[in-house]
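> forwarded from #structure-qc
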């Protein structure tokens, strides 16, 4: 049936939440599925995923640090949603780059396994990528999605923390934190996470509406 995190006095979870929300950037909402058997795929209604890269990505230069700094500046200054989406895709493309051909191949296979709902296979492949390249943020991010689908909020938050430690501007991971907080019923922390996400990407899909709704719920309407 899964853990009832709302009723847990789980110190480890509290520490993870505090650490994640202390990272200077963003967050988004997540839904999970309860399951007793780790081989059972969650029902369709529960298969929301953490934000991930678009299907088609542009080719980008190899200079990641300089490229990302420029792109994040362009993202924050984007004049409209279409412009922001193009910049987001370039950022994802840089995040997905890895100098390891083996890691790249394992990531492709992990995505194929996840698309086929072979969750345990995808998890093992990502475990291998992280062991091979612990500095590769997208392996942590992708594994966080799988833990989320398995309703394992503690491990999902732990992997998102690994992402944000390496890349505090990772709007996908910050969005994931917000989603988990919202699913757990902690609207205040979810709102804080989503606001950090918007500080990085003002056009982050669906997040402005979520922030508006949570602001009214948590802080009340303006008189």
């Amino acid at each position: 049936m899964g853990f009832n995190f709302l009723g847990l006095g789980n110190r480890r979870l509290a520490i993870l939440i505090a650490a994640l929300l202390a990272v200077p950037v963003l967050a988004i909402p997540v839904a999970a599925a309860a399951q007793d058997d780790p081989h059972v795929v969650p029902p369709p209604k529960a298969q929301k995923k953490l934000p991930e890269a678009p299907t088609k990505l542009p080719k980008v230069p190899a200079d990641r640090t300089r490229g990302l700094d420029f792109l994040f500046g362009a993202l924050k200054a984007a004049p409209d949603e279409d412009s922001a989406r193009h910049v987001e895709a370039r950022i994802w493309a840089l995040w997905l780059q890895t100098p390891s051909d083996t890691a790249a191949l394992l990531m492709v296979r992990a995505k194929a396994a996840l698309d086929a709902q072979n969750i345990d296979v995808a998890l093992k492949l990502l475990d291998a990528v992280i062991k091979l390249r612990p500095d590769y943020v997208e392996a942590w991010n992708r594994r966080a999605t799988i833990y989320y689908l398995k309703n394992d909020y503690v491990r999902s938050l732990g992997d998102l923390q690994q992402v944000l430690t390496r890349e505090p501007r990772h709007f996908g991971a910050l969005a994931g934190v917000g989603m988990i907080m919202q699913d757990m019923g902690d609207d205040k922390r979810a709102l804080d996470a989503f606001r950090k996400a918007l500080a990085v990407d003002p056009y982050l899909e669906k997040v402005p509406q979520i922030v508006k709704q949570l602001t009214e719920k948590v802080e009340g309407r303006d008189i």
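QC bot note: The chain has a mean pLDDT of 81. The two ends are 43 Å apart (CA to CA).
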